[in-house]
Fold this protein.
Amino acid sequence: MAHQTHYDTLDISPTASQAEIKQAYRRLAKQFHPDSNREMASHDQIAQVNAAYEVLGDPQQRRTYDRQLNDRPHAGYDPRYSRQQRTATAQNQHQQRQRGRDTDEHLQQWMQQVYQPVNRMLLYILQPLQDQLDDLAADPFDDELLGDFQAYLDDCRDYLQRAQGSFRSMPNPASVAGTAANLYYCLNQVGDGIDELERFTSSYDEHYLHTGQELFRIAIGLRREAQVALRDIAA
């Protein structure tokens, strides 16, 4: 079997442009990096990809490498194998492009059907809390103020239910597993926080207010971490 070249490692043509080389490297680096895809992670493959890009990514080193390839002895050259290799490479490139398109479509659909509506519902729940607490602090025993606070909690219940429904509507792509996990725990914290805040409306025990506020604070942090994880993927 022929020796694998750096072009084979990056799964690109020897005539590829520098932009195509960089694009192939970034795709493979993400594919085999343990932080983005634990199932596909491989130290050896990452090392091979890095070595190939170190040469091909530098135009001068690439020219030297291409001359070495052209000067390589051709003893035992089998044109049938060359055709088979080109065919296999073309098929592999087509399959990888198709998988890439499928992955992009899955991610786009998940963003629209899950992430965006869940993120929006969480904002509707978490953002008004401080203003609601400030209003209630004027007189926690006032029936009208307490009624307004209860109405806010009822809205929170509705938003939470809708967010949970969106979250369960489709599985997340592997690339956004961290974002999905943060959203899941965020929703749990919000649910527990609403429970604590509602206990105050029947007991007037401020301990429940403080606990609910703390659970919402944790939820805000988890929502922010989900956003950061998503930005890291897009970077």
